[in-house]
């Protein structure tokens, strides 16, 4: 599959369902690799989507990760129903985490997910409404 048009897809993510941790980002990685895109691009997409899907799994009730692949870029929207983020500026700081102990015991909760999404994306946007949910939009260019 060569990328000659636009491909769209989505993954549903259920909060707390760690048996499927990393599945969305792994599947997207497979799609991109089979399309023959550059490793470096695939790497950035995989990191950004993994962090997005894990945040939904850890903090939200449920969410959806949508992607649109075009020849030049990928657009990712990760949207959830969940508690939302009270202070986005604080949440964006490296090392800031409210992850509970049981999440840290699984090896997450370093407070690096959102900063890493921003670092790996060319465009990064986050919106959140407390008590409703969070929406992360990213564009990663080849
Ligand atoms: N989808 C979300 N819903 C509610 N809160 C969130 C969401 N995503 C992030 N947060 C809040 O922002 C904080 C920082 O998120 P970030 O992904 O940077 O770090 P982390 O998830 O705590 O740790 P790491 O991603 O390194 O495993 C989280 O601890 C949490 O308080
Ligand atoms: Mg995280």
Using brief descriptors, characterize the structure shown:
Heat Shock Protein 90; 29% strand; binds magnesium ion; alpha+beta; single chain; binds adenosine-5'-triphosphate; 142 residues; five-stranded antiparallel beta sheet
Helix fraction? 25-40%
Within CATH, the superfamily carries the name: Histidine kinase-like ATPase, C-terminal domain
User: What is the string of SSEs from the N terminus onward?
Assistant: EHHEEHHHEE
Number of strands: 5
Q: What count of structural domains?
A: 1
Provide the fold topology.
Elements: E1 7-14, H1 23-34, H2 39-59, E2 62-69, E3 73-81, H3 88-91, H4 101-105, H5 113-120, E4 123-129, E5 133-141
Antiparallel strand pairs: 1-2, 2-3, 3-5, 4-5
Bound molecules: adenosine-5'-triphosphate and magnesium ion (MG).
Residues 51, 54-55, 113 line the site of magnesium ion (MG).
Describe the protein's architecture and organization.
With 142 residues, the protein is an alpha+beta fold. It has a single domain, classed as 2-Layer Sandwich (Heat Shock Protein 90), CATH 3.30.565. 35% of the residues lie in helices and 29% in strands. It has 5 helices and 5 strands. A 5-stranded antiparallel sheet has the order 1-2-3-5-4, with helices on one face. A hairpin with a 3-residue loop joins strand 4 and strand 5 (133-141). Helix 1 packs antiparallel against helix 2 and helix 2 (39-59) packs antiparallel against helix 5 (113-120). It is globular. The model has no long low-confidence stretch (mean pLDDT 96). Magnesium ion is lined by residues 51, 54-55, 113. Adenosine-5'-triphosphate (ATP) is lined by residues 51, 55-56, 59-60, 80, 82-85, 91, 96-99, 108-115, 134.
């Amino acid at each position: 599959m060569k990328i000659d048009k636009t491909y769209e897809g989505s993954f549903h993510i259920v909060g707390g369902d760690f048996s499927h941790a990393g599945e969305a980002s792994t599947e997207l990685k497979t799609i991109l690799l089979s399309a023959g895109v550059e490793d470096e691009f695939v790497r950035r997409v995989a990191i950004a989507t993994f962090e997005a899907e894990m945040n939904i799994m850890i903090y939200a009730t449920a969410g959806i990760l949508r992607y649109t692949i075009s020849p030049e870029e990928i657009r990712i929207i990760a949207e959830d129903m969940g508690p939302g983020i009270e202070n986005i500026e604080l949440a964006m700081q490296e090392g800031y985490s409210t992850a509970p102990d049981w999440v840290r015991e699984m090896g997450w909760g370093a407070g690096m997910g959102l900063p890493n999404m921003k670092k790996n994306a060319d465009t990064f946007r986050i919106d959140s409404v407390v008590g409703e949910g969070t929406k992360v939009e990213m564009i990663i260019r080849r």
